Amino acid sequence: MLGILAVLALLIFLVVHFAFPEEKPFFKCALVNQKIDSDRDVVLSEEFATFSGLDVKRIVFDSDYVISYKEAEEKQDAGNESGFDKFFFQWSKGELDAVILTKDFLKYCTSVGGEYYSADEFETKDLNLCEAGGTKAIDLTGTKLESELDGTEKEDLVLVFTATGIHKEMCHKYIDFLSEK
C-alpha cells in the first residue's frame, strides 16, 4: 500500500513538473562579489519589473555569486566554489543577461574567454562608460544602484551585458531604468 502511494506521489510530481514548468526569466542580472542579500535582490527585481511593466517573477537579480579568482586571491580569503561554478555555468548557457562586477573581475572573465556586448552598442544616455579588459562597460558610479551595492568589493563596479544572453531588448530597458532620474 505504501509503495502504491509513493508511486502515485511520484507520478503526480512528474506530471506537475513537466506539464507546468517554471517560467524562465525575461531578465537576469548577477551581482558578483556583493553581500548576499536576498531582500535587496527582491527590491531591485521589483523596481525594474515596475519600470518595465513585467511580472516581478520574470525579473531576477541574484547576489549569490561570491567568487574568489586568481587576481583577487591575495585580497579575498573565502571564495565560494559553488558560486564560481554557478556563475560560469549560467553564463555559458546564456542564462545571464547582465552582470554587475568589478573592473578587476571583468578583466579576469575576459581573460578566460568571456564575451560581452560593448556598451557602445547601446544608447547609454548620460551614463558613464569605461573600459576594462578590452570591454566597454557602464560605470555604476553615480547611478541609482550605487547606494544599493555594498558588497565585499565596492570599488570600480561596472555593468556589462553578456554576449550569450538572449534578452538584449531587456538590456536596453535596463539602461533606460538606470538613466531615469
Task: Give a structural overview.
The chain is built from 5 helices and 7 strands. The chain is α/β, with parallel strands linked by helices. Strands 1, 2, 3, 4, 5, 6 and 7 form a 7-stranded mixed β-sheet that branches. Strand 5 and strand 6 form a beta hairpin. The termini are far apart.
Write the layout of secondary structure elements.
Elements: H1 2-19, E1 27-32, H2 38-52, E2 59-65, H3 81-92, E3 98-102, H4 103-111, E4 116-117, E5 129-132, E6 135-139, E7 157-162, H5 168-179
Parallel strand pairs: 1-2, 1-3
Antiparallel strand pairs: 3-7, 4-7, 5-6, 6-7
Number of helices: 5
Q: How would you classify the helix and strand content by structural class?
A: alpha/beta
Q: Report the helical percentage.
A: 25-40%
Instruction: Give a count of the beta strands, DSSP E runs of length 2 or more.
Output: 7
Task: Calculate Rg over CA atoms.
Answer: 18 Å
Weakly predicted, low-confidence segments: 72-79
What is the succession of H and E elements? HEHEHEHEEEEH
Biggest sheet layout = 7 strands, mixed
- Strand content bin: 15-25%
Distance between the termini: 64 Å
Average of pLDDT: 83
Could you say which overall geometry the principal axes of the C-alpha atoms support? globular
